[in-house]
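Run log, item B.
One chain of 180 residues. Sequence copied directly from the ordering sheet:
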Amino acid sequence: MKKILLIVLGVLAVLALGFFGFKKYTKSFSPEAVAETSNNGVNVKVNYSKPGKKGRHIFGREQDKALLPYGKVWRTGANEATVIEIGQGVSIAGKPVEAGSYSLYSIPDQGSWKIILNSDVGQWGTEYNDGKNVLTVEVPIRVKPSVQELFTIYFEDIPNGSNMILSWDQTEAIVPFTRN
């Protein structure tokens, strides 16, 4: 009995080391980052990983071999699903959202993006369950003259809130957060 228990514990230890080794390995390519704001009555924190452009075609049509094809759900980062923590009830692009933690997904398109908050938190980023969507809004984009090599999330102050900016390549999606 002791021998079986030792074998089981050994296997579990190897699996745990493998899992954490894999996680560390993937994060070396897409480092973890945090973006947050506490301005104008809006308290938001975003935990995400920053994938790199690495010479790839990022946004575009599927047939053009874009990394993120128009009209397809993206985990809005790399590795685990991006988690957004909202400190109090806010409106996102005019739609109310309760305080809490959500996974952040998006659907890039040519002229706008859909932003999705999903109640399923803690999963790997590609495990998307649309049945748990809490909010879906459409937001504008802007095109930058320069290229953003690493995907980055940052905030800009606006009256009554903050814009969350999702920036990668030459595209920035603008997600307005306003206090209720």
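Observations after the first pass:
- The chain has a mean pLDDT of 89.
- Residues 7 and 13 are 10 Å apart (CA to CA).
Flagged for discussion on Thursday.
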